[in-house]
Amino acid sequence: MAGRIIFLNCFPRDLVSGGIKTVYRHAFLLRQAGFQAQVLQSEGLPSWLGQEMLPLVCRDVKDLAEEDMVVFPEVLDGWYADMIRQPMAGKKIIFCQNPYYFFTYRPSVEKLRDWGVTQVLAPGMEAAHLIQRVLGLEAVPVTSPVVDGAVFRPRQKKLQILCAEWKWPHQGGIPAYVCLFRDMLSLKYPQFSNVPWIPLKKKGEAEVAALMGESAVCLALGRMEALGITALEAMAAGCLVVGYHGGGGREYATPQNGFWHSPEDMEGIVDSLAMALEGYVSGSSALLKMVEQGRCTARACAREGQCADTAGLWMSLRMRLLPGAGKSCTAGMFSSLVNDIKDIH
Question: Could you give the maximum distance between any two Cα atoms of the chain, in Å?
Fold first, then answer.
């Protein structure tokens, strides 16, 4: 298929994030659909991703053409700030996986036009509508979230709490949320004081999937999320999910598929953790239904079902963003910027 789709992923090679994982999954689906999709990662494939992603990686980009699409993240500082302002032959697209980060760069409609950005994409309807309201953009197409059910699946369960806690750390005298929840649970429900708590931070995808598959409960503390893929992956792995939807998770969070709370409802979180643990121990039919409802929610994002949607979105973009308005960019200009990636590490 004519024209490349090049995702710029010039972050440190072993930086673990849901956004980076989503970029690779997205490019992988596009490759399967026949697109020439690549991920620019000058240091090579992140060690925490599977080897099936290796063919996507390119260490440099040369000879940009007008039919190419260059996909930026929403993080527009350092190298990205320089690159977004450079004239280039390819069409500039921003895949905004977190509007809250994006807004900190003051990306007005006028700036986006001056930078030559032809389209902004979002990973969910909540994020897309937020971008439209704040920036005044007319259309923000939505990419399909992908949860690989072959990777994130139930395994032999254990009575343990998996916790995605990094967005609520110890700060200015306020205790880290996970530490506070663990203490409150032990005080109010001492029968669960010995239940293990397993942190998710800085773990590769295979390890995360295995931990989710074997954990009875996942404490998913989303914050300022465009979608919140962690909770969806936990649902696919058969966890009882307790936590916050983070805003973007309003698309899928219901009383039937999890215990959802506001960040101010500290005791409510603790009560729900106790209810989930007790339900797992007793084999509660109501909570088994909640687990199944969560798995149904996640199946709507299965890789097999999203390939056609993803291909359709990019095909419509290609048809609309016809060549002709792009500005020339020499291979040397692009290569010199790639060689400066170390400056943002």
Answer: 68
